[in-house]
Amino acid sequence: MTIIALIVSMILVGYEQPAFAACGDRPSYNAEVTNSGSTWTARNGSRTVYSGSDMVAAVQAAIDSLSSGRTSKEWVLVRGDGSMSANSRISLRSYTGIDVCGTIHVSGSGSGDNAPIYARGVRDIEVRYLNITGGPLYGIFMRNVENVVLGDIGIRVSSGLGVRIDNHGDRSVRSRNIHIDQVYVSGTGSHGVETYGVDGLTINRVTARNTGGSGLLLNDTINATVDRIDADGAGTGTGYAALRFANRNGRVGDSYPTNIRIGSVKAVGGGRGIFCVSESGGVEINQVDIQRTGGNAILIENCYNVNIARQSGTVDGGGEIRIAARDEFPPSRDITLQNLTVRNTDIRWSPCVGSNIANRNITRENSNLHWCSSAR
Predict the structure, then answer these.
(1) In which band, very low, low, confident or very high, does the pLDDT at 375 lie, cut at 50, 70 and 90?
(2) Whole-angstrom Cα distance, residue 181 to residue 151?
(3) Preceding peptide of 351 cis, ω within 30°
(4) CA distances (Å), 243 to each of 21, 24, 44, 224, 255, in order?
(5) Around Cβ 107, how many Cβ atoms within 10 Å?
(6) How far is CA 238 from CA 21, 162, 170, 229, 234, in A?
(7) Among 14-18, 191-195, 361-365, whose mean pLDDT is lowest?
(8) Predicted confidence band of residue 5 (pLDDT cuts 50, 70, 90)
């Protein structure tokens, strides 16, 4: 195959350049964990800090062997596939980076916030590579953290939640400055990626396949930029969506300036496509591609300053595109649906409450428009 043909074939199959060249490609690591047969060994320089059968103990020993009181990031390399209990965790300390060059398989039962990668009340942490299988409670769980980088994350599981980052240890202080390169998540019982109480979120890509809940759920999160959400079968049979905003997401003080910016959303099947609810807003979404959702293709319910399909979009089949309202919250305002081609599903504004709600440049094919002539 010629170079040109190879490049063309990569484009056709959706090839994407990985975030990094290869797992373990850093020039040096401060501590290293290796596996030989049933023995895990953790070393820091010439020191052996653990040798035994427990992968979690080995990785934790390597992390805990890093310099005490450090103010710059030190790195741990893990080589080999391993297993752990759902009722255990590997805890990151401040100023720690880790590459897991292998797969962690999670089995058994557990409770609480245990996860293969866990962090609470720490800062400046990085997980460049991680692959998880089995049945964890969470793949990654982080609470009240700052300056976090997640690189190439694969979570192919049969239960639990993929990645959760929140501030529920101290809700007066947000988790801050979270960067996620790419997450592939499938088979969760709950959401693929969820944030709650975050200020400063950047995501390159979330790919969700057959998640029990939303592909990406943003709660009470501000100043977020997401390049792409690609969801197939997210939240099937539920009210969740490929992309969901909830719990005053995007609210800054008492207003909703545009601070949640989404590049593109693809939703195939599943529950809903896009769902904004419970006094959320401040959102602009450039492109949408929504196909055959089980529930609403788009549902905007008590949200403010939402602009969907700023550039372009298609909706084909599935449930209605709807502007709705609950009595317990003020009705929606400053909502724009535009630049859409809508096939085989209706567009409905009901009940007729809200203000500055507009649709423009909508092409309808086998689709009806039920729009309020006035609202309050």
Answers:
(1) low
(2) 5
(3) yes
(4) 30, 33, 43, 13, 22
(5) 13
(6) 38, 18, 30, 19, 9
(7) 14-18
(8) very low
Q: How far apart are the C-alpha atoms of 211 and 233, rounded to whole Å?
A: 7
Q: Which residues contact 148 (CB under 8 A, 6 or more apart)?
A: 119, 125, 126, 142, 165, 175, 177, 178, 179
For residue 215, the SS3 value is coil
d(CA 243, CA 29): 37
Structure letter (DSSP) for residue 91: B
User: From CA 170, how far away is CA 168, in angstroms rounded?
Assistant: 5
CA dist 313 and 189 (Å) reads 29
Among 50, 139, 68, CA closest to 100: 139
Residue 46: phi and psi, rounded to 5, are -85, -5
User: 155 and 127 in contact (C-beta within 8 Å)?
Assistant: no
Write a three-state SS string for 107-145. ECCCCCCCCCEEEECCEEEEEEEEEEEECCCEEEEEECC
- State mean pLDDT over 65-83: 98
Q: pLDDT tens digit string along 215-269?
A: 999 999 999 999 999 999 999 999 999 999 999 999 999 999 999 999 999 999 9
C-alpha span between 116 and 355 (Å, rounded) = 47
Provide DSSP, 238-284: SS-EEEEEESSTT-BTTB--S-EEEEEEEEESSSEEEEE-SSEEEEE
Asked if the model's pLDDT at residue 161 lies above 70, the reply is yes
pLDDT digit string, tens, across residues 77-105: 999 999 999 999 999 999 999 999 999 99
Amino acid letter for position 154: G
Quote the pLDDT of residue 17.
42
Token look-up 């373990």 returns 24
Whether residue 3 has pLDDT greater than 70: no
63 touches 76 (CB < 8 A): yes
